Please model this.
Amino acid sequence: MLAAGVSAGYRGVPVLRDLTFRIDRGEFVGAVGPSGSGKTTLLRLLTGQADRFAGDLAVFGAPVRRGRPGPRVGYVPQVESVDWTFPLTVEHAVLLGLTADSRPVPWFSRAERRRARALLGRLGLGGLEGRPIGELSGGQQQRLFLARAMVRRCDLLLLDEPTSGVDLKTRHDVLHLLGELNEAGMTVLLTTHDLNWVAAHLPRVLCLNQTVVADGSPMAVFTPGVLRATYGTDVRVIRDGDMVFVADETHLLRPGSGR
Model:
């Protein structure tokens, strides 16, 4: 994946400016930054859902164009952005991932259905094929969209806030699964607000605020100066050997202060 001098956004309004970075096959990368920094726009750009105004963008050597996702790219949106009241079964929701390849009619073969059910089984959702999506728990919803992305046999997996709003066990399960997929050769790029999760588990991080502020290992990138430039506020960084922890600056509210 290669971005060189990319400016992108929507309806003529740029969200990302002069974006330049390279992600090689098989990497596992986290993108962090404040709300409005362009994290989701970056993923939408890579799936052909945002407008590119300038620069070059390619996934596995193929240019990315508006309305056309890159080759073998799977996308997992934020769980909160989905209408879970829509009358759709778990199996059908997974199979609709195949329509991202400009498939004209959503009719599916027996082989495709078998693949969908095998993925659901692998992700701990076996036996739930006929259940309405609205009856799933938060963790099950997240795994459902992983299956939906993977049914395309993707080489690049893009995830928008995959650990947002889930409990610690689900967060661990999602990370474990992504690690397995990455070890099997899949390239993974995810966005998150959880800096300590990134610091503890990911080998590389992009700090974004409309452009790339810093790019490298969490140990190298998570410094007070870089995080101040990324978030526009002071952040406390604690180092303990080969570990790094990030915390907000503490401002205690006094009783009766009204604050």
Observations:
- The CA atoms of residues 207 and 214 lie 5 Å apart.
- The chain has a mean pLDDT of 88.
